[in-house]
Amino acid sequence: MSAKPVVVVTRKLPAAVEARLGRDYAPRLNPDDRLYSADDLVALCNGASAIMPCHTERLSAEVIGRLPATIRIVANFSVGTDHVDLAAARARGIVVTNTPDVLSDATAEIAMLCLLGAARRAGEGERLVRTAEWRDWSPAFMVGVQVTGKRIGIVGMGRVGQVVARRARAFEMQVHYHNRRRIDPDLEHGAVYHADLESMLPLCDILSLNCPATPETKGVLNAARIARLPDGAIVVNTARGALVDDDALIAALKSGKLWAAGLDVYNNEPAIDPRYRDLPNTFLLPHIGSATRETRNAMGFRALDNLDAFFAGREPGDRVA
Ligand code: DGY
Fold it and tell me: Cβ distance 51 to 25 under 8 Å?
């Protein structure tokens, strides 16, 4: 019987996932859930065949260049792959996989939470109650924006975007979307496709960012695009912080151009731009889109399915490089 492949697992994973890892592989686990530096990671990979990282480990071209030749696959515990230099992995013949589908529902739930939290001032309200500063009720107290029946524009109508559209329809919203390509009309359920992002923006009472972070989408929400949104629009980001120009978003939140923003992801997490914290009209979550018990198990099993296929000599289902 051949030895089990050694897999470097960068973060603490759900117990059931680690149990399956232990059954089928020789995992190098991280029981203390310590954030590894690039040097730690490279050292841990000595003699290993695979890495199962999260988006918290940056596998830049430089880091990939330092990995030992034994590493054959990077099976991400994430749908996003912007933390991995895919071209560098390809150049070294390292296979890369991700975990699509299984986190779409959980992430769309958080998008709706961000949307509602921003529109209805949930952060402010929660703080009032929690700090015992809630004194009174009046018709003018904590008045927010109603989302029912509003127009939502979704940037990136992939798996998560389509679930956000479905949830938005339950709030009787009219759905518009921008995507590189129009999706199958059978999947649109009345959503209106805009090949041109610029022409969609004036129609968006709510703008939800749901596209991956790539060199093309970096800073896609910039000052010029915010200016095209209706006054008082709401911005929701549950995809990646890199999609947003922070200076532009913060200026628009300060000036009142935007009503509010609901954010789960940021540039430079977790050391986010501190100005977001000082704004009353931000509803802020700490990158918890996929953080449900069900989804975290499913992500782990999906990453393991990819490893299993690879080591069985088959093409992993979620290969991205
Ligand atoms: C993902 O899977 O990309 C989530 O953002 C968590 O990493």
Answer: no
Q: Are residues 18 and 144 in the same domain?
A: no
Range of the domain at 87: 6-102+293-311
Residues 45 and 163 placed together within one structural domain of the fold:
no
Do residues 273 and 298 touch, judged by C-beta distance below 8 A? no
**Which ligand 1 atom sits closest to the C-alpha of 55?**
7
252 and 125 part of one domain: yes
State whether the Cα torsion 240-242-243-244 is positive or negative.
Answer: positive
- CA–centroid distance, 265 to ligand 1, in Å, is 10
Per-residue pLDDT tens digits for 239-281: 999 999 999 999 999 999 999 999 999 999 999 999 999 999 9
Q: Indicate which residue's Cα is closest to atom 1 of ligand 1.
A: 78
Q: What is the pTM of this model?
A: 0.97
Question: Residues 204, 301: one domain?
Answer: no
Q: 151 forms bridges with which residues in the sheet?
A: 174
Segment 89-114, tens digit of pLDDT: 999 999 999 999 999 999 999 999 99
Structure tokens at 149: 């029946």
* 3 state DSSP class of 50: strand
194 is catalytic: no
Are the CB atoms for 276 and 288 separated by under 8 Å? no
Edge to edge, what strands does the sheet with 174-178 contain? 192-194, 174-178, 151-155, 206-209, 233-237, 258-263, 282-284
Stated as kind and residue range, the H or E segment containing 106 is helix 104-119
Phi, psi of 161 (to 5 degrees): -55, -40
